[in-house]
Amino acid sequence: MTLCDFERRSGAALVGFQGEVLSQAAYEDCTSCFVTADQGEIYTANYHKGTVSRLFLRDRTLEYEDTTLIRRKAGCHQVLLWKDRILVPCLFLDEVRIFDRDMNPAGRIAFPAGTGPRHGVFSKDGRRLYLVSELSNELFVISTGDWTIQSHISILPGGETHKKDTAAVRLSADESMLYVSTRTMDLLSVVDLRGDTPRLAQNVSCGGQHPRDFIRVENWLLAANRFSGTVDSFALRGDGTIAEKTGETEIPGVVCLAAR
């Protein structure tokens, strides 16, 4: 599944393993920034329009269902699926809006002004949501029982906040470590989750410029550095912290990574 621009409109396309377009749907005026899927249901978030769109995949055919306007210029950055709920971090509203699967409002999580919630990841048991803020450079731990913020910390050196441009967040397989990237500071942060509250364990260079995304693959971390046009690889120590840079591959304008 990919988000793309067509001749007159934007939308989504289903692409085969050989690069062939199997199906496509054009349903909006500018490209969404995030897509996720769950058993044939597909959701996209449009940062500029402040919308969430829903599609269905039936017999390898994409069918557009509807679009929900949260608010123009809400900064919708992601769609998180949790049980029968849909969560949408809205950067410019300083809120995570919560909906049921029919996109009816079902609550919200409010943050201090200037936080800018961006991306989150759930714990395996679904009891916690770890969410990072683009504008205030913080990690928030949220209880999914009542959607309250349990704790929050800066992910920057010296406890700094509001330097902007925090981007991606990933959780280690054993859930002991959490990783965060911050673009204009060219920084990777490692947060230790093994205590009662999260603790910033490490800040290191991303190896290039503007780490829009990264992934952890076994004992390696790969950073997608957009402005340097490189994917930089790092070895991980046994405790999950980042060791030396081990390689670099040129990929112009890289913004996203995924592992099969």
Describe it for me?
With about 260 residues, this protein is mostly beta strands. The chain is about 0% helix and about 55% strand. The chain has no helices and 23 strands. The chain has strands spanning about 1-5, 10-15, 20-30, 35-40, 40-45, 50-60, 60-70, 80, 85-90, 95-100, 105-110, 115-120, 130-135, 140-145, 150-155, 165-170, 175-180, 185-190, 200-205, 210-215, 220-225, 230-235, 240-250. The strands form six sheets. A four-stranded antiparallel sheet has the order 4-5-6-7, with no helix packed on it. Strands 8-9-10-11 form a four-stranded antiparallel sheet, with no helix packed on it. Strand 16 and strand 17 form a beta hairpin. It is globular, with a radius of gyration of 18 Å. The two termini are about 15 Å apart. The mean pLDDT is about 95.
